[in-house]
Amino acid sequence: MEDILYMIESVEEKEGFLLVEGWAYLKPESMQMESENIYLYLVNEEQQWICRPYFERRFDIIDDTRKADCGFFAVIDKMEIPVGTYRIEIGIKSRLKQTRPILYVSTDRELEI
Predict the structure, then answer these.
(1) Under 8 Å CB-to-CB from 98, ≥6 apart: which residues?
(2) pLDDT tens per residue, range 35-94
């Protein structure tokens, strides 16, 4: 069972950049792990590229002040990533002080660089 609810709302290419917008947060049963940071991963069989997106408050998604920063958008320079097909994965880092795990979910969205 996935611990992360998410939506990749749009992926656009503009002037050599990829713009990825969406939201992600931990499911209510995982609330003891309050999210701290959202990461986007572009992954293929050969490599992984990590992006720390900008945050957006999304009260239209979740009406909880602790989770309202679940919206994100990323600006990815296509020149920095080797040519290939990449799957988008989302990671959420927990606020837990001791272990600070990152929970992951693999999406069905792919990008062509």
Answers:
(1) none
(2) 568 999 999 999 999 999 998 888 888 766 566 778 999 999 999 999 999 999 999 886
Instruction: Pull the structure tokens for residue 12.
Output: 């656009």
Amino acid at site 81: I
What number of residues does the chain have? 113
Sheet holding 71-77, edge to edge: 4-14, 17-26, 71-77, 54-56
Amino acid at 99: T
pTM of the model: 0.83
Give CA–CA dist 102/80, Å, rounded.
24
Query: What's phi and psi for 72, nearest 5 deg?
Result: -145, 155
Task: Give per-residue pLDDT as tens, 78-110.
Answer: 999 999 999 999 998 866 655 557 888 999 999
| Cα–Cα distance list, 95 to 32, 33, 71, 81, 102 (Å) | 9, 6, 18, 30, 10
| CA 93 – CA 82 distance, rounded (Å) | 26
